[in-house]
Design brief:
6 helices, binds adenosine-5'-diphosphate, about 240 residues, five-stranded antiparallel beta sheet, globular, alpha+beta, binds uridine-5'-diphosphate
């Protein structure tokens, strides 16, 4: 598969066209940003880990009936994916209060939620990805009510599958962010990534943070945490 012109360079990945109009190549970088782009840095080896972890989890989800954009891992940092038109939402799933939710409702981080929480943020860096609800999404035409029903049911199913899978690896899934897209025939599929950049992973026993919060909060041990996640998931 030939890598053609670069379409987009984001904060963590680059996206390239290929000679197949329905396929893109994503290339994972070591660049890291936080606080809506205010904090910038690099995490050595992050691109390789996020590429491999994302593909591992997407393959596992596909086997359990979740359609994804994954096609084939091409190299350490590059993956062939189905081209989608991204639904411009960050779909956030929460099991335990942390980060912005803990702040917003004034509960200590680590408070178990009585039931799973789904949140939507409108993907717009200039606006700081504001939280929106289903009425905004329908009114603005970002997705139809029917598409949102599919997205919400996939997000909850993904949470069940990932929570159970990670529990066996002594990882507690606190919360995570998903992105969905539409194939040219309108089918909704899971896109983007699932990695320590986009999930909060805590060690089940020690509650040690094994994710991007170590970078966001200047806790040190960032690279080791990403390595540890790859090791627990993939044995290396
Ligand atoms: P950001 O845009 O937030 O800086 P990234 O650096 O991760 O994020 O850039 C990757 C971009 O590619 C994101 O905007 C994401 O929505 C988009 N994307 C992910 N998967 C696909 C896909 N299969 N087809 C088209 N775009 C995708
Ligand atoms: N998240 C993400 N990208 C974003 C915002 C959040 O991947 O732009 C993930 C984040 O890693 C966490 C979850 O979504 O797993 C919930 O994040 P939160 O709303 O608590 O935001 P934060 O505290 O990161 O600002």
């Amino acid at each position: 598969m030939k890598k053609l012109e670069q379409l987009y360079e984001g904060k963590a990945k680059k996206v390239f066209k290929t000679d197949d109009p329905e396929l893109y190549i994503v290339d994972y970088k070591d660049d890291a940003t936080a606080l809506n782009g205010l904090k910038k840095g690099t995490i050595a080896g992050k691109g390789v880990i996020n590429n491999r972890v994302t593909n591992h989890l997407m393959k596992m989800l596909e086997k359990q009936g979740i359609p994804t954009h994954f096609v084939e891992e091409l190299s350490e940092r590059e993956t062939l994916v189905k081209k989608v038109s991204i639904v411009p939402l960050e779909v956030i799933v929460r099991n335990i209060a942390a980060g912005s939710l803990a702040k917003r409702v004034g509960v200590p981080e680590g408070t178990k939620l009585g039931s799973t929480v789904l949140e939507y943020c409108y993907k717009d860096d200039a606006l700081g990805d504001p939280m929106v609800n289903e009425y905004h999404i329908a009114a603005m035409g970002w997705a139809t009510r029917e598409e949102m029903e599919t997205i919400a049911s996939y997000a909850l199913k993904i949470n069940e599958i990932l929570t159970a899978y990670l529990k066996d690896l002594n990882i507690e899934l606190i919360d995570f962010k998903l992105e969905f897209g539409k194939l040219s025939d309108g089918t909704i599929v899971l896109a983007d990534e699932i990695s320590p950049d986009t999930c909060r992973f805590w060690d089940s026993v020690t509650k040690e943070k094994l994710d991007k919060d170590r970078f966001r909060r200047d806790m040190g041990g960032v690279e080791d945490a990403y390595q540890e996640i790859m090791k627990r998931l993939m044995g290396e």
